[in-house]
Amino acid sequence: MPRSGEVAKRLGLHPLTVRRWVKEGKIAAVQIWREARIPITEVGRLLGEQRAGLLVLYGWVSGHDQQPDLQRQVEQLEQWTLLARTGQKTLTLTDIGWGLGIERTGYGVTLTVLSPAEDKTPEAELTQDLLAIVASFAGRLYGLRSRKQRQ
Hints:
With 151 residues, the protein is an alpha+beta fold. The chain has 5 helices and 4 strands; from the N terminus they run ααββαβαβα.
């Protein structure tokens, strides 16, 4: 991710203008320590470049009994695509699974959350993450116990 000075040069702007736009929210940036880095995709947006990448729509529910929720998620994602990313190639992926998938591979992507949760404090987010981890381990433990009982 380029620094604001590099972005200013590429856009033909003064670096202070770019920094001001970042503060005003006109340019999306990632804060790294005391410095704002601007994603390449944001520079492309400002230059009016079209995105050539594939837009992946991802819906997830924890159980098979939540199929209607999964369908609703996919419909919301497709609606958003029609409004915000008209004409972009899309691929829709769905997933059904409980807990934290420790074997799922990661991808280098930009994630856009369409329905973000209300603003949470870092402590609340950490608490939620820890509870999810405990629930995941408890599920695995109970799964092992039930497998032993079936045998």
